[in-house]
Every structure is written in structure tokens, then in C-alpha cells.
Amino acid sequence: MARIxxxxxxxxxxxxxxxYHSDPDTNxxxxxxxxxxxxxxxxxxxxxxxxxxxxxxxxxxxxxSIIDTGVKRRVVILVSKEGHCLYxxxxxxxxxxxxxxxxxxxxxxxxxxxxxxxxxxxxxxxxFPPGDPEGKAAAFAQLSQLVDAAKPDAIVLARFxxxxxxxxCARWAGRALNIHHSFLxxxxxxxxxxxxxxxxxxxxxxxxxxxxxxxxxxxxxxxNVIRVDHGDSVADMVRKGRDIEKxxxxxxLRAHLQGRILVHGNKTVVF
Amino acid sequence: MARIxxxxxxxxxxxxxxxYHSDPDTNxxxxxxxxxxxxxxxxxxxxxxxxxxxxxxxxxxxxxSIIDTGVKRRVVILVSKEGHCLYxxxxxxxxxxxxxxxxxxxxxxxxxxxxxxxxxxxxxxxxFPPGDPEGKAAAFAQLSQLVDAAKPDAIVLARFxxxxxxxxCARWAGRALNIHHSFLxxxxxxxxxxxxxxxxxxxxxxxxxxxxxxxxxxxxxxxNVIRVDHGDSVADMVRKGRDIEKxxxxxxLRAHLQGRILVHGNKTVVF
Amino acid sequence: MARIxxxxxxxxxxxxxxxYHSDPDTNxxxxxxxxxxxxxxxxxxxxxxxxxxxxxxxxxxxxxSIIDTGVKRRVVILVSKEGHCLYxxxxxxxxxxxxxxxxxxxxxxxxxxxxxxxxxxxxxxxxFPPGDPEGKAAAFAQLSQLVDAAKPDAIVLARFxxxxxxxxCARWAGRALNIHHSFLxxxxxxxxxxxxxxxxxxxxxxxxxxxxxxxxxxxxxxxNVIRVDHGDSVADMVRKGRDIEKxxxxxxLRAHLQGRILVHGNKTVVF
Amino acid sequence: MARIxxxxxxxxxxxxxxxYHSDPDTNxxxxxxxxxxxxxxxxxxxxxxxxxxxxxxxxxxxxxSIIDTGVKRRVVILVSKEGHCLYxxxxxxxxxxxxxxxxxxxxxxxxxxxxxxxxxxxxxxxxFPPGDPEGKAAAFAQLSQLVDAAKPDAIVLARFxxxxxxxxCARWAGRALNIHHSFLxxxxxxxxxxxxxxxxxxxxxxxxxxxxxxxxxxxxxxxNVIRVDHGDSVADMVRKGRDIEKxxxxxxLRAHLQGRILVHGNKTVVF
Lengths: 271, 271, 271, 271
Description:
Formyltetrahydrofolate deformylase (chains A, B, C, D); EC 3.5.1.10 (chains A, B, C, D); homotetramer; Rossmann fold; PurU (chains A, B, C, D); hydrolase (chains A, B, C, D); seven-stranded mixed beta sheet; two-stranded antiparallel sheet; Alpha-Beta Plaits; 11 strands; 25% strand; Formyl_transf_N_sf (chains A, B, C, D)
């Protein structure tokens, strides 16, 4: 810690925000430093070069990255029919709260094409034929081509409803964020609100996590819950749940894009 | 209670939802009954005629209304520059969650004209010249004409930022809903997040209330809060607060339109 | 509904609180009426007799009970070493918030004997020898004798840490309340905070439920959650979780004793 | 920051936890470092001597303290009739969660004498005669003598219900913690639940703050809220509010004793 702080201080860096965490189980040490770019006498590339030397001295296992907030981060959003998460994200982009470059919205249905285009964002329709494994594989091939062409910093599954194949999970590891409409690990998989209604829980939840090959089992970024009672039908749960899905996804995406999330094993450190 | 239940039961009414509340301080009794229209052998007008007789027998002070959910309720939204509440409401309308007829959006700035029109909703620009009482009075006259022409069941001040004159408060009593960005009665008036930051509170809030002549003092419909800490600047509070403003306003509007809110004195019963 | 309301009204009953719920899936109808005893011209036994006739007319399947709040309800509390739930309950009894007759506290350790006796409540020590099935069976026999002798309206497993045999679950069905230190159905069974820490969840929870033969799978009465982050060790989670365990258990017990909980299948209606 | 981290690192200190905050409004910089005592080659007094030199070099305005967690912190608790906060604190002490030395409980009534003594803690009865300013002044003199004799690190007003005179506020500045039963700054002063009921708020709150001469206006340490509705009487609010009062006070006290709270002007940094 002292080594990193000294490096930044000696270079004249003005540290805006600093966070630390050490994990007693694995003896890993995590930190995030936010430095004013104009306080450093060199640019971001030179910073990367110099810091690489510091990191090397600290440990051969060091894993680090430097994000330049002066460059807009690139996002691709995958959707299906339900628009609440997309609406919410577009509203945040429009209001300046989420200062990103949405390169494309890709949907397996066209329901959300109009609202996307009203924001001047390209919408691509990639249908996923149900019960047709080959058709699906082809659709995923097309999808991944569209996504990769955008070189996204984040691939947001905003209620996308299709399970990504293991190959894409691996290729997009640490960049693909999903919103699952339950308080994981409860109610993995399909129709979580139906499962919640059947079990008679008194709170329903939403979970934003990184996508991994095992369904709904990736590192959890953010979660929240909302109260329900015996009077709430599945439809009421769906409606109430949307309000937390939106906030949990937007919060997770924001943290991801600001480099606040460090993944370690199957867990996250969120600074 | 038995009298109302008997009336509905004898008419064959299928009661979907029933709520009761008696106020020990004032001895008033409140109830809301939701009845399936097709379970009654007559229409809504006949129901009103018949129920009027029941109400007369119950008490000369009875105050009641019957809402026909088969008729879309009419809404006018007043906005300024900040779009998060408008985006949120339009998203809910688009997704079918808020099944209303948004007759118009009226703004004292044009920032939100495009998103409104993208939804096929008329946007009216009514500028309010700062520091010009006569100009403001004229603007309010124009505004009220536009609003009243729409015969709205709800007038939503979605971060409108102009204080309604007493005359409009009276004319729209029980129909005009405001979202105030604080946990009332804390931080009445201008710049509540600045006030909250100065006081060093650990939670910030939002309040949806009916508009009355006294600023931010009308009957409270719904409130919520979100956690902040010493690291949150005013700008952070503004950002975090938006997420509860949206949910609190949408929840309040939904309850209002479903006839779930009974105003009594300066308080609400929310069924 | 009208039938029950008419019966009470005709008898002159002053209804303090009334709740209704109809379940569209099973077509069951649920209600709870709270009536001022001194508003009725007869006593509770006569009320039971008369209401039995009403219930019979309503449906052969009717299931009902009448609680006399003038009679203190009887409670037995089962504990192990951890005292936070017991302390909390005793504090509520002492302060008059929980107006019950705690007949006994039974512990498989003696750690909580002193605080129990300081409240003038008998403490029974029933050790459960680990790894000795016969010894455990004998202990459960002794335990059930002590419990049944108290004729309790509620048997509270306040972090008791022993799994009740199926026979006791059946005998105490609808009267035995457990507090499980997770947000069920996540993290069933032993060491839920360890499980939660391993999975990296961002909220931990507590669940109060009726005890059934299947472990941690009984009807849920009440749940709540509290936020944790990457900096929280298992010990931190244990500490934070206690604060919600206490409140969730006390709330569930209160609702149970006031007859606010109607169990239907594996779910609860909580009025 | 680098200077402090270097000092600790050069001394071989193992930093368990580190927090930083810089206030852009005042340009103050705040930090808390938690170091394993056995990782340093010298004792706490030597640490204080050496760090004083570092602090002097950093700024003439530096304000710092070093807490030795090997020494139990001393607490005095002031109470009146309501026992829920005292019960809660004693339960936490008994369970080892709050590892402190409660030197005394002082009450202006004797209601809580028994439970205090059952824990082996001295209880002092100091009556405050109502409507007798001289009698009250004498009582405060006796109270302050008892408190000061205990040399407490924290003086906890656990629903004490007497307003401290300005002199005591000054003498105990930064050590006297109060729990106020509202979400400050709403409902300052007497009977906040009555005020909340009258205003018709939908959430009630509790606030833990440092005591200052201005009533209920000191630096806020911690706050929380709980939902209420139109059906909640003042008595219901009192009951529900207790659950958050307890948790908010205990959380604030814990943070205070661990040196996690830095007061700056009328605000707190809580690490």
C-alpha cells in the first residue's frame, strides 16, 4: 500500500479517492486509486509504463489496470421484450448520469427498436428460433460478431432471457453483466418470481452478476430486495421486482465502468 | 362495514380486494372495495345511483367515489429540465405497467420535448420568465388552460420546479401530485440535497404528496430513503436521490389512479 | 365476508381491525376480525358457540379460531448458547411490549440460565450429547415433556441449534417458530453465514418460519435482510445478522400470538 | 497519506484496515488506520511519541488520536424508565459483541435498577424533580460527579429524557452520544412520534448523534427508518421505533468506541 501511495505521491498525483481491502483467507491485497489526470506530469500511457514497474516489484502475481476516464466507455446492451431496464439505462445516459457510449442495442425481438432508435442508437434484430439448436448457434455467432465489433467495455444483458454459450462466457469474462430477477442464490434459472411466489417468501430480490458458464452462479456485484406479502400475485411480484432490477443493474454497471469492481475467484470486491 | 359488504354481496358483486380503516382520533371510517364489473347485473352509472342511497343511509357526512377501471385514466405531466421522473413514467406506460392516457407533457424548458414526442405524446412549451411576476402569472394561466383542457385525473409535477399559485392548488386539490426530493418534513423548499449535505444526514429521501397552498406541506402519499455517507458530495446525493424519487412518484401515482388514497385532513389513508 | 361482518354487527360487535384476503389460485378466502370484547353482549365461549354455526353455514371446509386477548398467551423458549434472541425477547416482555407468560426457557447449555432466572422465569437444562442418537432421543423426550407441561401457545426456537424430530414437528405443528439465520430458501441447514460468505452475497438475511419435518422448509412468517460487503468476515456477518434475527423473530412471534398468521399449505397469510 | 502509510510500513506495521476521505469543501483529509499491535516493535506509548512527530510534519492543524484496543473502553449509560436500549446494550455486552466495561448505569427512575444489577453493574438513582430548576441543577451536579468518576470513553444517553445543560455538553463534547427517536432534522424535541403521527409521514426514524448545546442538533453518527402506515397509532410507532432506536444506538456506540468517527464541524466522517 505504502509503495503504491508513494509512487503516486512522488509523481505529484492528487488522489481523489482511495480504497483498500485485504482478504485474510487468501492474503490478497486489493486497492483502487482515483487520481486527477492533470496532477500528473505525464499521460496515461506513460503512467501505465511506470506503474508496470511498480507492480512487478510488488509481486509476480499482481493484476492491475488503469482506466482513463477521459475516454468514454463503450457499452452494448442485449435485450428481449421487456423494456424496463433498457428504458432506465437510456434515461440515465440521456440525463448525463451514465456518461457512456452505447454502441448498439441488440434484441431477439423488435419491441425495443423504436425507443432505441429515438436515442440515435443502432438497434440490431437477431432472432433466436426456439427449439432449434442450430438456429440458435447461428444467432449467437451473429450476436457475438455484432458485440465484438463494438469493442465494448461492458456487455449488458438487460433481461436478455437467452443463456450465453460457454464460449461467449469465456470470451466476455469480466465484461458481461447480467441482471437476474431473484435474490441469488435463491431461485436460479427460469421464472424466479413464480418460484418465489410458490415458496411464499416475504421479500423478492434482484442480483447483478458477471456472466459465467454456470447459470446464475457468477460473481455477484450488487443485490437488493423489496417487500411482498400474501396479497401479491406473481404479476405483482414481476411489477415490484422491476423497480429493483433497474436500480441494481444500473448500479452494477456504473461500478463496473468506473473500475470499482475487482473480481477474485467467484467473489467481487466493490470499492 | 357490514352495510357496504351486504349491499355488494346482495347485488352479486365479486369482491376482489377490500380494505378498512377506522381512525380512533376522529371516528371516521374508511374503506375501499374492488369489485369485478362483470359480476354486477348493472353498469357503473346504476351502481353509482344505488350506492348513493346506501351512503345516504350510512351518514350525511359520507364522502365516496366509484372508479371504472375500464376507462383509461387521464394524466398530464409537468416538467422542467430534469428528465429522470418523466423517463421513468414513460417507460412504465410503454411497458403497460401504468395503463394510462398521458394527454400532454408541459415543460418550462424544451429539454424533454423530443423524448415526449417519441412516445407520440404532445409536448407544450410554457416558459416561466424568472424575476417577472406578471410573466409568470401569464405562464400559469396558459399552463392551467392546457391542463384543464385535458380533464386530467392526475396532474403530475415531475420535478416541475415552479411553485403553483394558491388558486391552482385549490382548483386541482386532490389531483395534483408533487415529488419533493427530501424526506419531508425535513428540508422543505429549495435545494433540499444541499440542505441535507450541510446537515450531514446519513439517509436522504423523497416524498410524494398532494400539492396544497402551503409549500411542501400537503398530505404525504409515499416516502422512501436511501443511504448516503461522508463521501457523498451534493452531486452524489442528487444522483442517488433520483432512484428513489422515481420509484416514490410512480408508486404514489399508481395508488392515486387506482383510488387507493383517501385524503382526510392533512393525512392520507393508502389502501 | 358479508356474512361474518353481519354476524358481528348484529351482535353489536365493535370491529377494531378487519383484514381480508382471497387466494385466486385455491379460491380460499381468509379473514381476521378484531372485536372489542366489551362490545359483545356475551362472553368468549358463547361467541365460539354462535360463530361455529356461522362457520358451518359458510362452508364445511371452514377453519377458524377465536383468541381471547384477555388471557395471557403462554410461551416456551428453546435456546442453546447464543443469547441475543433470548435477551431481545426478555427485554420486550419486561418492557410490556410482548405481554405474554414465558412459562420456561429450556437450554441444551447453561449459558443463559442466569439471565433467565433474573427475570423470575424457570430455566431447564437438557443436554444433547453430540454423536449419541439414543442420548439425543432421550433428551428430546425430556424436552417435549417440559414443553407440553407448559401447554404453550408458542414454542420459540431462539437459535436452538438442534433439529426437531419429525414427531415433535407434527405434534407442535403451527405452534413451533424457528429463526433461521439466512434469507430462505438460500443457505438451508448448517452455518448459513459461512455459506453466504463463500457465495459472496451482498445482503444477508434472517427468516422466521413454522417448523416442519423438512429442515428450514416450513411456511415463512417474516424475513428481512441487511447489507454486507467484501470487507465483512464471517464473524462480521454473524454480528450484523443478529440484529435482523432478533427483529424478525420478535415480529413473527408477535404476529403469531395475535392470531395474525393463517397457514395455508406451505405459505402464510399475515394480517 | 503516503507519509502515514510509509511511517507504519517502515515500522513493520501490519495494516488490518485503512480508510481515507478528503473533503473538497474544506480541504481536510481524514484517515483511520488499524494496525496489529504485535506487528510493531514498540508499545502504544512509543507509537504515540513517534507518530506525534509525523503529525507535526504533516500540518500544524493535525488532530489525531491512537486507541489501544487491548484496553477495555469505559462506558456510562444514562437511562430513565424505558428499558429497550439498555436491555439491548446489556445483551450485546453479555454476548461479547460489545467488549466494553460498563462502569455504571445512572437513572432518574429506578425501573431499570434490577436488570442492571443482575449484570453485576452498579446502578445509581439520581432523581430529577420536575419543575424545580434548583433541584435539577443539583441532580446534574451529582450526575456529572458520578459520570466523571468513571472516566468514561462514552456517555450513552439511552433514552435519558433530560436535556443536558450546556456546561455538561461542553465538558463531554465528542463523548456523549444520544439516541433521538426521529429522523433528524425532522421532529426535534419532545414527543417526536406524536409529531410524526400528526404529520402523517410514511416512515419513522431514529438518529444517534453527539450531544451539543443546541437540542438534537449535534453531529449525526447514524440513522435509520422503518415503515409505518395510516393504521399505526402513536403507540404502534413507539413500538416499531424502538427496534430501530436500539440498532442505531448500538451501531453508533460501536463505531464511536472503535474510533471510527471523526467529527469535523457539525458533521461526522464514519469509517
